[in-house]
Description:
Helices cover 25% and strands 24% of the residues. By secondary structure, it is an alpha/beta fold. The chain has 2 domains: 13-342, TIM Barrel (Alpha-Beta Barrel); 348-489, Carboxypeptidase-like, regulatory domain (Immunoglobulin-like, Sandwich), CATH 2.60.40.1120. The strands form 4 sheets. Strands 4, 5, 6, 7, 8, 9, 10, 11 and 12 form a 9-stranded mixed sheet that branches. Strands 16-13-20-19 form a 4-stranded mixed sheet, with no helix packed on it. It has a 4-stranded antiparallel sheet with strand order 15-14-17-18, with no helix packed on it. α7 (238-251) runs parallel beside α8 (272-289).
Amino acid sequence: MATRKLLLCLAVCLSLLSCHNGRAPEVAYSDSLPPITDGYVGLQDGHFVLDGEYWYPLMLNYKAEFQEADGRVEVVPAYYYSGRSIREHFDTIASWGFNAVRVCLDDKERTAGDNAARFDATRRMVQQADSAGLKVMLLIVPPFDSCWQAYTQGLLRHLADLTALWAYDFINEPLYFDPEPSRDKMDAVRLVAEWRHWVRQYAPHQLFTVATSEPIEVFEWDPSMLPTDFVEMHTYHPLRVYSEMWWYSRYCGKPWMVGETGLPADGDSVPWDWQWLFLYRTFERAKYLGAIGYGWWEFQDCPSGVNFEAKYTGLRDSTGKSKPAARVFTDGLFCFSCYYTDEELRPVNYYNMLAYSNIRLTGRVVDAASGKPVEGAVVRGWNKAWSVGMNTYTDSEGRFTLYSNDYNVHFEVSAPGMSRKKFDRRKIKYSNPQGIDTENLPDRDREYHQIDYKPYLNTSNPDIPFNMDFDSAHFFRYTLEGELGTVRLRRLK
């Protein structure tokens, strides 16, 4: 088994030697950043820096909660983690080659209690991470109401002197967890600007972010507009990861990192080797796309997870045994002396991530004021029942092609820094050159969680059983074709 893994690693490393020259992507960065201060992580020239050198966070997500025993409050591991010592867990994480943890303390039910005691417990947790050689990004309960606003401001004050606390994350994936079901973009900007003001006022040396998920965050929590110090994006599923990272690398408008990704592996239906290679490949691609950090979800498997992905993405199994993927960074087989062109970095399934093949809708997005094409706009369609949604993006000419297996009726379109359009289109005319039965299209109900990525893997090289270089022939097939027309967006101030 060890020999096979070594050969597998060497094969992947050797594959990097066939890269071609190309330019590295550029990112914009904000000028209103914390001052560069000895001991603290800062941002300079679009990179994290620490004590005069670039610092690249290799971050593992770690779930924790508060617990009171014998009159003392402590931060303790998630209930399903084997072993109850956070310090031992942090030592293990550091031994795997990680230099940072994102500690998730954002569960309202498990965060209630005496504020001062919780502040002290959080301080001790950060100090334990520091002694293990790890920097901490702290995910907190989003401070939407007055109770949590007071808590957050007190926490910022109490922990401001901790150099190991490098960043605050104020909300996890607002696309899914924002209590406001349809938030206006400018309201999100106002809210985030207020949060950043607190960080600057009460924790002037620490960085600030929010964790965004899919590119459709642009409809409400537009990453290009949010006044965060950097973008921390989350992406899952092999068919989606490269495409979503590519979009963020080009259109988020500021330094960005992968905060969460992962491939579930149980050693049976998904082999351990595949998880190892997924971590390797996505880290490699993130670096080539210009990501300034990389994070994995999560420390240990959750046996009570709601689905396969939630149960098996850990780097330890449910018994606490390390999986092979935990050793990716200590195996030391990375090679970044090569360069890719933009065309090579953009995945073949960028415009049709999930290989839908029944219908394609074409259209164009333009600036309402100038009539110029809008590149990087996100186009979202839903079927009549709102049960299946699909995304695509506009190209440099503002044109898009939205593939689907079911008829789209509901639409939403937006772009970084621009307005949002929502509309229904129930009477679209479709060409049907093959004369198929248009009422019985195959796989009409197939959506994200039902799509198996395995048929799309390139398995031509037996030494690399998990290769995310997908065959383009899978992603440009369609039977019916329709036209959605031109969508006009206005630029927001």
